[in-house]
Amino acid sequence: MHALGRFAAAAVSVAALFGGLVATAPAASALPAACAKDDTFPVPLAEKTTTNVNLRRNPGVGSTSLGLLTKGTKFSGRCLHYKGGTNWEYGKVLSGANSGKWGWVDWRYLRD
Predict the structure, then answer these.
(1) Contact assessment for residue 69 and residue 54, using Cβ atoms and an 8 Å cutoff
(2) DSSP string computed for 87-108
(3) Segment holding 77, helix H or strand E
């Protein structure tokens, strides 16, 4: 019985470890399709907005605004997409009123 208990404990540990790895690994499908065909960053970029700028649902000025990012808002960029003569960066808002939201920002208004 003692051996069975050790086996069960090992099985639970392996399952928990595997589950933890799966839960923390970023899924390729987590990024929008526009990222897959353009420039995806190997690591997220830590940036800030240089002025007030809209966070957009999709790349492009005609896309729905998800909120206004004020100057100095922290943004974690994940990829670029070129549309309408402008590079758009997709990422997650890390500070401010829209913290936690994902969306697109005009690349010209971001800096490292």
Answers:
(1) yes
(2) EEEEEEE-SSTTTT-EEEEEGG
(3) strand 74-83
Taking only the tens place, the pLDDT of each residue in 63-95 is 999 999 999 999 999 999 999 899 999 999 999
- List Cβ neighbours of 110 (8 Å cut-off, separation of 6 or more): 47, 48, 49, 50, 75, 77, 89
- Residue 36 token pair: 């897959």
Tokens of 67: 């909120």
Q: What's the rounded Cα separation, in Å, for the pair 49 and 59?
A: 16
Tell me which H or E stretch contains 3: helix 2-24
| Nearest by Cα to 90 from 70, 68, 60 | 60
Give the closest residue to 67 by CA, choosing from 98, 91, 90, 88: 98
Give the pLDDT confidence of 30-72 residue by residue, as tens digits. Answer: 789 998 877 899 899 999 999 999 999 999 999 999 999 999 9
